[in-house]
Structure formats: C-alpha cells, structure tokens
Amino acid sequence: PDRTGVFGEEIAPTISVFKQDGALHGMYSTIKDAIAASEEGYTVMLATGVFEEDCVIDKPLKMVSRDHNLPFVHKDPLVSSGLMYVGCGIISRRRREPCLLVRCAGVHLSGIAISQIDIPIDLDGDKEGGGEAQMNGEEAHGTSAVVVVEEGQLSMENCYVSAAFGSCISIRGASSSISMKNCRIMEGFGGGMRLEDGSHGLMIECDVASNKGTGVVVNNKSHLIIEHSQVRDGLEDGVVFDCSSTGCLDRCQVFKNSGSGVVISGGSEPDVQECRIFQNYSFGVMVRDVGRGRIMSNDIFENAGGEIEIRGKGNPQVEGNKIHDSSSSGISVDGGAGRFYGNEIYSNARAGVKVRNESKIEFVKNVVCAGKHSGVVVESRSNGHFEGNVVQLNGQCGFEIRDDASAYLSRNLVMRNIHMGFLIYNGASGLLQDNEVACNGMSGICVMLNSSPNISRNLIRDNCQHGIFFTQGGKGNVESNQIHSNRKQGVRIEGPSDPIIQRNTIFNGLKHGILVCDGGRGTIQGNSVLRNKGSGIKIRSEGSPVVAANRFHHGEGRGIHVASSGMGEVCCNSIYQNAMEDIQVDAPSDQVV
User: Fold this and answer.
1) Rounded to an integer, what distance in angstroms lies between the CA atom of residue 290 and that of residue 312?
2) CB 500 within 8 A of CB 476
3) What is the pLDDT of residues 530-564, one digit of tens each?
4) DSSP string covering 326-388, please?
5) What angle do CA 299, 340, 215 make, to 5 degrees?
6) d(CA 6, CA 193)
7) Are 151 and 128 spatial neighbours (Cβ–Cβ below 8 Å)?
8) What was the pLDDT predicted at 84?
9) 164 conformational bin, left if phi > 0, alpha if psi -120 to 50, beta if neither
10) Secondary structure of residue 553 in the 3-state scheme
11) Rounded to an integer, what distance in angstroms lies between the CA atom of residue 552 and that of residue 280?
C-alpha cells in the first residue's frame, strides 16, 4: 500500500526510533527527522508503506522495516510508478543524487526496498510530463547510484534495490565496504553494483538480475566476495573484475547475460570456484589485458561465444572445471597464456582447445573428448606443453599443430578420433614423446607441408590407416617408437617428404611395414620390421630412400620390394625368414642394392 502522499494518499507512514535498550525514543513522519533524532546504535523502524525522500546516514544505526522480511516488488500497470511494494519502500525520482548515502561505519538495513523510479511528474508535483524522467543516453552517465557508500560501512539484509537511471549500488573508497545477504539488485539502468577505489564487499545469497548495465563491477584494486548468489539476465556482462581487483566468486550461478558471464581484466586476480556459468550470449569466462586468477571446479556450458576465452596476455590458472556444450570452442587462448589442469572439456561445436597468435600454455591431465571439431588446435607461432591428457572421440583430429606452432607432447592418450591422432602441418614443429596413439579413424600421426617434429618412444597402434604418414614435404625424426597393428602401412612416406626413421619397431601391420612412394625420400636405418602382412619395406613410384642397417624378418610378404620406378640405396640390412622373397627388384628400377 502506498501511503506517502505521492499519489494523493492522505496518511503518511510512521517511523519509530528505538534506543539501544529497546525503549521508544520517538515517532516521526520522515526518515530525515528520524535520523536526525537518533544517536549511535539506535534503531529506526519504518512502517509498511512507501517513503519518497533522499537520506544521508552519517551515524551508526539500524534502519529496519517492521517485519524485517524481504519486500515483494513487482510491476503493476495500475500504479503510476509502475511498481507495487508489499512491505517498506524508499523511492526517489532524482537521478543526480543518491536515494541513500552512507558516510559512516556501522549502518545496517533490513527488509527495505530502495528504488529510483521514472515517473513523468515534476519534482515539485506541480505538473505532469517531462521532469527529470526525460533523459538521453549521454545524461545517463552522469547519474548517481541509488545507494552510495562513501568512506562508510553498510550491511544490508533482505533488501531490494532498483534504479531507473543510474546503477543500483556504488561503494567508493578504501575505507568503504558493504555486506549483503539475501538481497535483490535488479533493473539498474547503469548496472547492478560497483565497487571502486579499493573498497571491499561481501554478497551472500543475493540475486542480481535484469540490469541494463553490468551486473557487478569490481574496479580499481577493490575486493569482493560473492557466495551462493546468482547474476543473471543482464544486458551486458555478469561479473567484471578490472584494474588490479581481487575477490572470490564462490558457488554462484551466472547465466543468460548478454555479454560474458565473468570478465577478468586489467591485472585482476580473483578466484572463480564451484560456480555454474551458462547460457551467456558471449563467453562464459573472459580473461584479458593481463588478467590472472584461478578458475576452479566450475561447470561452464552452453555459452554462445565459447566457454573460456583468454586474450591480451591474460594468464589464469584453470583447474578441475567441466567445460562443455559450447556452440564455439571450449577454451580459446588468443595472445595469452595459462595453466590448465584436470579439466573435462567435451561436446563443444568447434575445437575443444584452440591456442593461437603466439600464445603459450601448460596443459596437463585434462580430458578433451566428443567435440565436433579437433580436440586441441595449436597454431600461429604458439607454443604449448601438453602432458598426461586424454584426447579422444573428437570429430576431426586429436591434436592439430600448424602454422609455425610448436608443442611438447608427452604421455598423452590420443585415441578414437575420427581423423588423425596428430596432424602436424604448415611449418609446425615440436616433440612427441611417450604418447599412446591408437584406434584413430585415419593415420595415427600425419606430418606435412614442411613441418619437422621429433617423434620418439611413442606407442602407435591400431589406427585405421597408417601409423605415421609423411606427405607434401613433411620432415622430422622418428626414433624408438613401437608402431604396430595399423590397418595400412606402419610408416608411409610420399614425396617430397624426407624424414629420418631410425631404431623403431614396426610390426603386425595389415599391409607393408614401410612404404616409400611418389618421390618420397628419407633415411631409414636401424629399425626392426617384422610380422607385417605385406613387405617389410616397399619402394615404388620414384621413391628414393636410404635404407641401411635394418632387420626385415618374419613378414608374410617380401623382406624388401623395389617395385617399378623405385630408386634409392639399400645396404647392410638383415633380411630373413620372410614368407616370400627376401629381396625383389622389378625392372626398370634404378635401385642400388
């Protein structure tokens, strides 16, 4: 019920002031009079109704509603303000002054709705139309927040704050702080809550919703802890930490914001942990401009732009998260860095992880699976350390290393991807060591277009095409690997590729152990090639390798087969116990054996 006289009502609500011992100090009709009559530690109790006035609290006191409960506020077209309060409310039409200004420590509010409203009535009440309700976009930047704390300390419980012009709450200054529990911060034209200039805050079980600006901004070395709250349905970002700010977002839900769910920038370093961040229209979490922080044990999913985006030298620690069901990439690092440990990254529409533009990451013990694109893509002169990961069941390759990128890949399990396990191309390099590459839909490892990796001590098995495939100028050193049970060749070299294949064991392939063809070259030495269905090595179509000091034995075909137009040099090999000829050279080969 509205009883302030703003809309013609005759009865104003009453205000009771109580002393510290609970004795009644006096009864007042305005909040200003009640505050002026109060002393330190007094309680100002507001009756049910709506008060239109601006308040400055400059002494420690409590301001509570009669029932202390969260006021219920909803839109009502039959009320000229557009708002209906069931409980106790303070309203203001002024947009350049706060509705409530706190300038001291020890102020507590409970069960009060505080709103800046847009009513086309002049401040003096003389006429309708215009007034301060009429404003344009430029004027909005000069408006005040509804609740402002300047060099003071405010606690709020069961309160509601909304703003038709500015932001809902502003905390300013290193000695200022706010503590909120079970509050609703809604429909702020300039955003929900801002902490500035080293201020501090705590939010527990609050609802920050439907703000036209950013839901929560922590700026300029400020610190905010948000627990068990939700930040939702805003027209910009959900929560922003900027300019060397810190804090913690703990067990919250951040969803359906038109920007990103959480933004960390400007050297800020917050913790984001055990949250659900989903269905935001940009990124789930954006880290940029030297932002850091720890992103731990969250469920981040169904964000339109991607789940985690790192740009501009951002360098967070990302640990133990579920990152899934994005319409873009799961994790994208563009000119940034980061450490990723123990995450589950799955069912994303593009790459599970994409690293580009000279980024550098450490990626350890993660699972990347069931994506529609490749599991991990490293490109554009980027560098990564990938160790102990499981990369499987992705719609294209397990790993793509390309475009002058370099990667150290060790002890990864890369299996059951639709295309290659590893695709390394266009000038890429790196070290593949102690990985298991198995059951991929095409080759286990493909090297092409002037790339030159070192491939050593890997288990490369049961792939649907070749174990290792060199084509279109691929190079590199393949040493001390176990290559077996692949459905085509253990190693295939096509021209003008020229790798070094040495000290490997290549066995149980369903075709040849090694095939060199179409102008391929290479140095093949010190390998043990056995029990393959085809020849131990076959050279054809102007293939021209150097084959020396190998053992070709116990094959079901020939030991060495130099087919028509095969070339090169074959010497000092041990060839024995093959089912067909140990050596066959077909005319008109120019082979030297």
Assistant:
1) 6
2) yes
3) 999 999 999 999 999 999 999 999 999 999 999 98
4) -SS-SEEEES-EEEEES-EEES-SS-SEEEESS-EEEEES-EEES-SS-SEEE-TT-EEEEES
5) 45
6) 28
7) no
8) 45
9) alpha
10) strand
11) 59
